[in-house]
Amino acid sequence: MQYEVVLPAAGSGKRMGAGQNKLFLQLNNKPILIHTLEVFESDDACTGIWLAVKPEERAYIQALLERYRITKVKGLPNGGKERQHSVHSCIKAMQQVEIVLVHDAARPFITKPIIARLVEVAQEKGAVIAGVKAKDTMKKVRDGIIMETVDRESLWMIQTPQAFRFDLLRHAEDVAEKQGFLGTDEAMLVERLGHQVHIVESTYENVKMTTAEDLIFGEAILKQRNN
Ligand code: C5P
User: In this chain's numbering, which residues are marked as the site (Transition state stabilizer) (predicted)?
Assistant: First the structure.
């Protein structure tokens, strides 16, 4: 089953504290952005990549795409103020496809078997996201005081990719924009329409490069994979 993927890449990466877009930082001498792109470039089921970029970074990213021979990028629309705006900008630029994936450009360790499973479930059910079970004891805290210990069995930490039938995600994004609703992931926009969202168990390796220590994990994952 074929799909196209939206990769929001227009963040500022403040939490990384690198003073530049964190996606340009290198893991094993290659930019994080390219690690992520190569997963989709090498996946035969992926027929198009849409990258949301900052206008001032477009030329640099285009040069990276050429240098690393990434050929599947169909468009580089302007990103927006928030991640959701960046994703919406790509969705609006796309032609109708059956299945669309949204994946953080900052998660370079996603694997093809997980992508394939997400695409399969999206085709059948309409909406599905990747996640892992919470490992730690989880508590609700207010003003430094424990309010409640939450049953861990029902708690998942949500990642990307998130996969949807294209028309469902486009509708959910349009409604959210019209109502001024801002979510922290795409699934929230679909959930609030009353549509069921399914989950596929992913791996703890599919970490988002967010803070400086994530780069250490990232290097370690690559080293282990290359052994
Ligand atoms: O900041 P964070 O790592 O949570 O962002 C997740 C992804 O969304 C990153 O790949 C980042 O480049 C992208 N993003 C974006 N537009 C924004 C904010 C983040 O494309 N306004």
Answer: 15, 22
Distance 80 CA to ligand 1 centre (A): 10
Determine whether the shortest distance from the Cβ of 82 to ligand 1 is under 6 A: yes
111 close to ligand 1 (CB < 6 Angstrom): no
Coil vs helix vs strand at 113: helix
| Span 201-226, pLDDT tens digits | 999 999 999 999 999 999 999 999 98
In sequence order, the 6+-apart residues with CB closer than 8 A to the CB of 44 are none
ipTM of the complex: 0.98
- Ligand 1 contacts CB of residue 52 (under 6 A): yes
Closest CA to 99 of 125, 75, 74, 76: 125
The answer to whether the CB of 74 is under 6 A from ligand 1 is no
> pTM of the entire structure?
0.97
